[in-house]
Design goal:
Elements (H helix, E strand, L loop, with lengths): L3 E4 L9 H14 L6 H5 L6 H11 L6 H18 L12 H10 L3 E5 L5 H8 L7 E3 L12 H10 L6 E5 L2 H9 L3 E5 L10 E3 L7 H8 L1
Parallel strand pairs: 1-2, 1-4, 2-3, 4-5, 5-6
Length: about 220
C-alpha cells in the first residue's frame, strides 16, 4: 500500500520555470548565447551547475571553474530577486486540496527537489508545514536522474521506497523515481512523460482513493 507521496517542486507545486528561464537567459548573454525556450526545456529538473555546463556547451564557450562559480552566483541572485514576490496565490491548481486529502488519510508527504531554494519557496507559498520532510539540492550529492533525492526523502519519512510514489513533471525526475523503485504520477500539460505510470494535467479532484486505486 502507498504510504507516502513525494512531490517535485517546480512545475508540480508551483511554476517558477519562467523565472529560471529569465535568469538563465540573462546568464547566457554573458557568453554570447541566445537561450531559447526549447533549450530551457532541457534544463528542467537539472541541477544549477549542470544547467550552466549545458549552456556553455551550446554556446561553445569555455570558462574556468572560478568564472563558472561567479556565473552560478549571478544566476541565483537574479532568480531570488524574481521570486521574492511569490505567495500562496502561486500554488498550482489542486495542490492544497490534494495535500489535505492525502494527509487526512494518513499518507505522509515530502518534497524531493533539485532546487537549493526549496525551503525558501515553500515558506513563500506558506506550504512548508504541509510536508513531513523536505529534501533539496543542498542535501544531496547527486542530482536527478540519480535517485538519491527520492531515496533520502523516503528515509526521512521512515518508509520503504516501494511504499512511495513520486509526483513529477520532468523526464529527469521520472527517471530518478523509477531508479528508486517508486511509481510515478506525471504532471504534464503537453505531450507525455513516457516512463511515468500515469499522467494527468493537474491534481484537481485527486484524493487518497485515487492514489490507492492506481498505485497500490
Amino acid at each position: 500500500m502507498i504510504r507516502g507521496v513525494i512531490f517535485d517542486l517546480d512545475g508540480v507545486i508551483t511554476d517558477t520555470a519562467v523565472y529560471h528561464y529569465q535568469s538563465w537567459r540573462r546568464i547566457a548573454t554573458e557568453v554570447n548565447f541566445d537561450l531559447t525556450e526549447e533549450h530551457n526545456e532541457q534544463l528542467k529538473g537539472v541541477s544549477r551547475a549542470e544547467s550552466l555546463d549545458r549552456i556553455l556547451v551550446w554556446a561553445n564557450a569555455l570558462r574556468t571553474e572560478e568564472e563558472k562559480a561567479k556565473l552560478l552566483v549571478q544566476k541565483n541572485e537574479h532568480y531570488l530577486t524574481l521570486i521574492e514576490s511569490l505567495n500562496d496565490k502561486d500554488i498550482l491548481p489542486g495542490i492544497v486540496a490534494f495535500l489535505e486529502n492525502i494527509r487526512s488519510a494518513g499518507i505522509k508527504t515530502a518534497v524531493g527537489s533539485s532546487s537549493k531554494n526549496a525551503h525558501f519557496i515553500l515558506n513563500k507559498l506558506r506550504l512548508i508545514d504541509s510536508f513531513d520532510a523536505v529534501v533539496d539540492g543542498n542535501m544531496v550529492k547527486q542530482t536527478k536522474p540519480d535517485p538519491e533525492v527520492f531515496i533520502l526523502a523516503a528515509q526521512l519519512l521512515g518508509l520503504q521506497q516501494q511504499e512511495c510514489i513520486v509526483v513529477e513533471d520532468a523526464e529527469a525526475g521520472v527517471l530518478a523515481a523509477k531508479a528508486a523503485g517508486m511509481k510515478v504520477l506525471g504532471i504534464t500539460a503537453h505531450g507525455q512523460l513516457h516512463q511515468a505510470d500515469l499522467c494527468t494535467h493537474n491534481l484537481v479532484e485527486k484524493d487518497a482513493q485515487f492514489i490507492q486505486q492506481f498505485f497500490s
